[in-house]
């Protein structure tokens, strides 16, 4: 394992640790460089609408320096900026591309090199994801796109701590024989391989249910899912608990693919 891989692995091993991210940023800075700006001549541009070549303005791409950071240096700047300011970027998948949250008023304008680093993620990530402290923190892919290959690539590069499977919603039921009082149990059923759309939103493949089987808040039911059985359900008393359990199962599965243990619980 080379030095870059070892430092990245330290970030992946401890998603909550800023120190590992800053050490990785230092390495990126040490190995990155400044490149000539391709948008200007020495930091200056001819002013629009002026035929006089002597009328120039400062280049916005490089702030007049004539040089821009390469991908490593820009990534280092993004890591430090997000840690320092608490700004979080969410890729929306829509025409606005990004939404910004955090102390925006105190942080001021996001530097151009940070935007360049953030936009680099758009080609490889699901349409919706959250970028925090220089790395992807959560993703929202459909189940069909959350394959072993894509999960392995994602978790080998980012300390992801949350996954929302687009289109999935817990099954809601009632344990009373007469079904009075509305739903009081929520959860997931093993994929029956029956291509019926009415079941699709609450059915999951066994490899995800395997990671939910020992969940401490799971409710016992007559149709309990057991690893290796290929049928049954995993139920919870609250819808939010069922959603969080699916997210944790996706994270545990993805981290396991690249040899990482489950993340430490948030304090």
Protein model, in words:
The chain is of the alpha+beta class and 267 residues long. The protein has two domains: 3-33 and 70-162, no CATH class; 171-253, no CATH class. The protein has helices spanning 3-13, 18-31, 71-85, 104-107, 112-119, 148-155, 197-200, 206-209, 239-257; strands at residues 34-36, 44-46, 56-58, 67-69, 88-91, 98-101, 129-132, 135-139, 162-163, 171-173, 185-190, 203-204, 233-236. The strands form four sheets. A five-stranded mixed beta sheet has the order 6-5-7-8-9. Strands 10, 11, 12 and 13 form a four-stranded mixed beta sheet that branches. Strands 1-4 form a two-stranded antiparallel ribbon.
Outline of the structure:
The protein has 267 residues and is of the alpha+beta class.
Question: Any low-confidence stretches, pLDDT <50, length ≥5?
Answer: none
User: How are the strands of the largest sheet arranged?
Assistant: 6-5-7-8-9
Percent in strands: 15-25%
Average pLDDT taken over every residue: 84
Structural class: alpha+beta
Any idea what the shape is?
elongated
Blueprint of the fold:
Layout: H1 3-13, H2 18-31, E1 34-36, E2 44-46, E3 56-58, E4 67-69, H3 71-85, E5 88-91, E6 98-101, H4 104-107, H5 112-119, E7 129-132, E8 135-139, H6 148-155, E9 162-163, E10 171-173, E11 185-190, H7 197-200, E12 203-204, H8 206-209, E13 233-236, H9 239-257
Parallel strand pairs: 8-9, 11-12
Antiparallel strand pairs: 1-4, 2-3, 5-6, 5-7, 7-8, 10-11, 11-13
Looking at this protein, list some descriptive labels.
about 270 residues; alpha+beta; 2 domains; five-stranded mixed β-sheet; about 35% helix; about 15% strand; elongated
């Amino acid at each position: 394992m080379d030095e870059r891989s070892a430092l990245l692995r330290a970030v992946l091993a401890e998603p909550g640790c800023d120190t590992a991210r800053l050490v990785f940023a230092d390495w990126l800075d040490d190995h990155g460089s400044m490149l000539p700006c391709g948008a200007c001549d020495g930091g200056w541009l001819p002013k629009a609408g002026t035929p006089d070549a002597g009328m120039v303005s400062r280049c916005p791409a490089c702030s007049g320096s004539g040089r821009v950071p390469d991908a490593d240096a820009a990534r280092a700047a993004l890591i430090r900026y997000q840690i320092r300011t608490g700004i979080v970027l969410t890729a929306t998948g829509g025409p606005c591309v990004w939404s910004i949250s955090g102390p925006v008023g105190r942080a001021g304008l996001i530097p151009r090199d940070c935007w360049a680093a953030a936009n680099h993620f758009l080609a490889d990530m699901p349409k919706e994801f959250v970028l925090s402290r220089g790395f992807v923190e959560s993703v929202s892919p459909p189940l069909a796109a959350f394959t072993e290959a894509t999960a392995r690539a994602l978790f080998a590069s980012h300390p992801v701590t949350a996954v929302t499977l687009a289109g999935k919603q817990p099954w809601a039921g009632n344990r009373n024989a007469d079904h009075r009082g509305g739903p009081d149990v929520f959860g997931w059923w093993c994929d029956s391989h029956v291509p019926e759309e009415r079941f699709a939103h609450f059915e999951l493949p066994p490899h995800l249910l395997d990671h939910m089987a020992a969940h401490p808040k799971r409710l016992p039911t007559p149709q309990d899912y057991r690893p290796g059985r290929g049928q049954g359900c995993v139920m919870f008393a609250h819808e939010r608990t069922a959603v969080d359990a699916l997210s944790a199962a996706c994270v545990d599965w993805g981290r396991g693919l690249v040899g990482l243990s489950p993340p430490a619980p948030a304090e």
